[in-house]
Write a structure and sequence with these properties.
Blueprint lengths: L1 E4 L4 E4 L6 E6 L10 H19 L3 E6 L6 H10 L3 H18 L15 H13 L3 E4 L2 E4 L15 H5 L16 E6 L14 E3 L1 H13 L3 E7 L3 H16 L5 E7 L2 E3 L2 E2 L10 H7 L2 H9 L7 E2 L2 H19 L13 H13 L4 H20 L5 H13 L14 H15 L11 H17 L3 H13 L2 E6 L2 E6 L2
Parallel strand pairs: 3-4, 3-9, 9-10, 11-13
Antiparallel strand pairs: 1-2, 5-6, 6-7, 7-8, 11-12, 14-15
Amino acid sequence: MQVFNSLSGKKEEFVPQGDEVKMYVCGINPYADAHIGHALSYIFFDVVRRYLEFRGYKVRHIQNITDIEDNIIAHASELGVSVPELTQKYVERYDEDMAALNVLPAHVYPRAMGEIDKMQEMIKSLIEKGFAYAVGGNVYFRVRNVPDYGKLSHRNLEEMMAGARVEPGEEKEHPMDFLLWKESKPGEPSWDSPWGKGRPGWHIECSAMSLKYLGDTLDIHGGGQDVVFPHHENEIAQSESFTGKKPFVKYWLHNGLLLAGDEKGSRSLSNMITIREALKKYSADAIRVYTLGSYYRSPLTYSEESLKVAERGADRLRQAVQTQAKGEKGQAQIDTGAYRERFIRVMDDDFGIPQALATLFDLARDINRLSDEGYDVTQAQQELKELAGILGLTMKAAEETPLDVERIAAVYTGVYKETGRTPTHSDTGNAETLVQDLIELRQALRKDKQWQQADMIRDRLDEAGIVLEDTPQGTVWKRKR
């Protein structure tokens, strides 16, 4: 099994230190809903964990929660709530999002505010060893004392200096020195320390949590390419300085970024969709097919059209699993072993997930073809379901995805207002009931030859993701794909 190690810049054979793979993935800053760019990263590392477990490894997965930092403090202040209140709300919403995307929960989610003692222990030790220094209420890390600083981002200190600047009021020895402990401003959350009241810098959090829960050397450290520098670079410097130059991480894995136009996807971009918004329009499997359809280290540009294509692809896989095996011609001769071997071969080559997906689609095509010809495809369906599960695909019918109640309720209210009729239901909390009621209203309008208003109902539902089909047995509806 080969993985691309960002540290060496090449593929390496994956050989963990022991029977348990120690994996740490950088987590969220919970001050707003997670967006589809977060989904891209966490879905990928979910597949990494699932595949390692499929290959027989035991994985211990740790993912931090940065529940104290500048953005969180600013948002809490704007909303007039406490930092813990704000972060707890968005941690819970994040957990719901991940469950909806079928992302396995990490074994431990340490929070920064719960690990202050470990961070202070590290900072004290780094000061004693000469790797850090205090200036007033701040503590900085001395990058010049680390000869190989920059080895992850493959840049030397001189190259990093381009664009580096010292903020007003900072008293650094060197422009690249970074904060380990930050003096708190009045009204901000703070903790007592040997350097005065303050709070941890961003980088020390992950080092403290990973070392506490996984030991001095990790097998895998994951995150997006946007945190290679400075975050992961600084993690290496402070962690290895603290442990006496023990290798901090054996394999660094970094996923490519989701782009909105030419920019990195982030919550600051108005056109970046949240996971919750995406799940109102697309199934979890579609979002997985979309994010996993490109090589994980390559950038992915956000596209509604691509998500629609992914939904159709997810539908093809679901149909292959759910098709009724006729069997009058006996068991289908599908070489499922060859498909499994192909799946493992491409996944063993640095998680070749796009090729693994292609393998599933080829197997699904054989299943559908032979089922139509009258063969029993039950065994092949079981193989498809198992392999799809390694990629976290649920294979649940699209109809099992909750409807967008608010959107359909708005259509319902608007239609009755425009037609001048009295709504049948005052309670608009059941989307299926509202859709069925609108179908009956449409039938009544057609009976009265009010064709334009009847067509308006069909069009409004179509915009809300509901397709109406007129059949000899009556009008039926389904989710739009």
